[in-house]
Amino acid sequence: MQEFKKEYLGAGITAFVSNSHIFGTDAVLLADFAAPSKKARCCDLGSGCGIIPLLWCKRETGKITAVEIQPLAVEQINAAIEFNSLSERLEAVNADLRELKGKVPFGCYDVVTMNPPYKASGAGIESRSGADKIARHETMCSLSDVCAAAKKLLNFGGRLCMCIRPERLCELFCEMRAADIEPKRLRLVSKLPGKAPWLALVEGRRGGRSGMTVEPELFVYGDSGEYSDEMKKIYGDYLLENRGENA
Prior knowledge:
Layout: E1 5-10, E2 13-17, H1 25-34, E3 42-45, H2 51-56, E4 64-68, H3 71-83, E5 90-94, E6 109-114, H4 130-136, H5 143-153, E7 154-164, H6 169-178, E8 181-190, E9 199-206, E10 213-214, E11 218-219, H7 229-243
Parallel strand pairs: 3-4, 3-6, 4-5, 6-7, 8-10, 8-11
Antiparallel strand pairs: 1-2, 7-9, 8-9
């Protein structure tokens, strides 16, 4: 049984992390990029320790569902729900996103997010840890699976927000369109000005018309080597204090 460690996120919200299930900059950026409205009903697929839903709980939103296939991660989410008294706002569902029928309602979500495995099946050296392998490689789901699940969950006009490595953007756009989710918004993220982007944030709309907005590039660090002003705003003082330069 792994021990859980508390990580304060600010605004009275605490996450529970473990050696197997932690979170990084990409998840924090995706939570900010998706930015649900006050009454939006949201679903986070492959939620891990629940960091994206917990960050949303720092603001006013509708009900949130966190779907996660790994039991230990679900335990962490449930620990956070109990600790933060979030049972009326956040629900954790232990399920495979490919088999959601009867486990979560279809066609009612305004926002669906996914921080997917970045490496396609068979690409690169696979992680030894089972949890790391599921998180980083497409062993349990593909981009096609994610988009198909989002199609079932979203209402018409609902948004699917994902982060992905830039080299897989074309693949993601194709899978989104195949699921009747039109890519509508793109933002690239670089570590430093002048460096190639290492992350892409993408939003698609269920049943949307063609036409994409490309937003200004986001830089994690400034010329001085410190977090950029925008990153400081996204992270907030509490997360910066807790995570330092290891985020």
